[in-house]
Amino acid sequence: MIKRRPVIIISKHKKNSSLVLVVPISTKMPKKEHYTNIELPRVISKKYFKDKRMWLKSDMINVVSLNRLFLIKNTLTVPNIDESLVQQIKDAIVKFYCLN
After folding, report:
1. pLDDT tens string 78-91
2. Do the domain assignments include residue 2?
3. Residue 61 domain flag
4. Is residue 1 included in any domain, yes or no?
5. Label partner for 69 (CA 20 to 30 A): which of 5, 13, 77, 96?
6. Number of domains in the chain
7. What is the domain range of residue 36?
């Protein structure tokens, strides 16, 4: 079974332009608060996800091909997220994977 999972693209691959680094989004509330689980702002969840509470799982990053990604609601618009949220996600990734 192929499941479509919402993701946020964090960055492009440095050498291969068809690859991107993504962070998955989950509707399942984390059992414990942890810096790797970042709640998606309600502004975004209201507009694109029927106002469900959602969490970014920054400890589950993955590199995927752009060919595997679908746009939200099959529209031609790609939602932009605030740069401060992107930085918060990147900081959690760096801390979790000890990349500093």
Report:
1. 667 888 998 999 99
2. no
3. yes
4. no
5. 96
6. 1
7. 7-96
